[in-house]
Amino acid sequence: MKHFISFSVVGSLMTMLFLGIVNYTTTPQTVWFIYPCILLLLWPITLYFMSKKLYKQYAVICSAMVIAFLIIENLLYSPQHLWFIYAVYPIVWWPILMYLEEKAKSLNIALIGCASTIFYYSFINFIMSPQYPWAIYPAFLVIWWPLALYHAQKRTFVAFSVYASLHISIFFIIVNIVSSPSVIWAIYPIFLVLWWPLSMYFYVYKRRLYQRSTMTKDF
């Protein structure tokens, strides 16, 4: 493994140097070689941390690298709009979940993660672009985390289909109101979503009838 790591370090440095020279000699006005260099750096870093089984430290190092890259990229090319703050938050959750280990699978962590995500993006939405409530989209996605985890633990799949359909329906209604209140289009996807709990209910109902009939025949 040491030979593989040494080879990856030398190979990454040689390739990065070659790309830098090509970039400087052909298109010096555009610094593009940094993009493949990020991936090349991950090669020896991944080999080293995986060989040592340092998975938590690997998550921290990789997250820090990606965040640093995004910040530099943002400040170099579009400093007037700090877009990196949108991407940093989900990246930070990678090492956090790694350090939580088994606790990361708990409902409490899911609820905390869901609430903090909604608060984070709602705050950014309010500060940077209050003219449109785009925070409803990440909120819609992150609510699935505790919702799916709770019903998976309880094995209440029919109830999950009901609450999930309600969640989807509320989302479409809100989007309809804030985006195009003059056209009531939310009823179309809601109608399709309602088939999910309906089919789940009849599947469970027919399965119970079949089990009861089988038990009656056995007796």
Specify the biggest β-sheet: none
Element-level helix/strand string = HHHHHHHHHH
Specify Rg, calculated over alpha carbons: 25 Å
Contiguous helical run count: 10
Q: Oligomeric form of this entry?
A: single chain
Number of strands: 0
Tags for this model:
219 residues, single chain, 0% strand, mainly alpha
Please explain how this structure is put together.
The protein has 10 helices and no strands. Helix 5 runs antiparallel to helix 7. The mean pLDDT is 90. 3% of the residues are buried. The protein is mostly helical and 219 residues long. Keywords: Membrane, Transmembrane, Transmembrane helix.
Write the layout of secondary structure elements.
Blueprint: H1 2-26, H2 34-52, H3 55-77, H4 84-100, H5 107-128, H6 136-142, H7 144-154, H8 157-179, H9 187-193, H10 195-218
Keywords: Membrane, Transmembrane, Transmembrane helix
Transmembrane segments: 7-26, 32-51, 58-77, 83-100, 107-128, 134-150, 157-178, 184-205
